[in-house]
Amino acid sequence: MDANDSQASLDFVRTIVAEDLETGKWDGRVVTRFPPEPNGYLHIGHAKSICLNFGIAAEFDGTCHLRFDDTNPQKEEQEYVNSIIEDVHWLGWDWGEHFYYGSDYFEQMYEYAVQLVKAGKAYVCDLTAEQIREYRGTLTEPGRDGPHRSRSAEENLDLFERMRKGEFPDGSRTLRAKIDMAHPNLNMRDPVMYRILHAEHHRTGDKWCIYPMYDWAHGLEDSVEKITHSICTLEFENHRPLYDWFLDELGAYHPQQIEFARLNLSYTVMSKRKLLRLVQDGHVTGWDDPRMPTISGLRRRGYSSAAIREFCKRIGVNKFNSTVEMALLDHCLRQDLNKTSPRVMAVLRPLKVVIDNYPEDQAEELDAINNPEDPEARTRKVPFSRELYIERDDFMEDPPRKFFRLAPGREVRLRYAYFITCTDVVKDDAGNIVELHCTYDPATKGGDAPNGRKVKATLHWVSAMHALGADVRLYDTLFTKENPDDAPEDQDFTANLNPNSLETISARIEPSVAGAKPLTRYQFERLGYFCTDTESSKERLIFNRTVTLRDTWAKIQKAQKT
Ligand code: ATP
Ligand code: MG
Question: Tens digits of per-residue pLDDT, 369-387?
Answer without folding.
Answer: 999 888 787 999 999 999 9
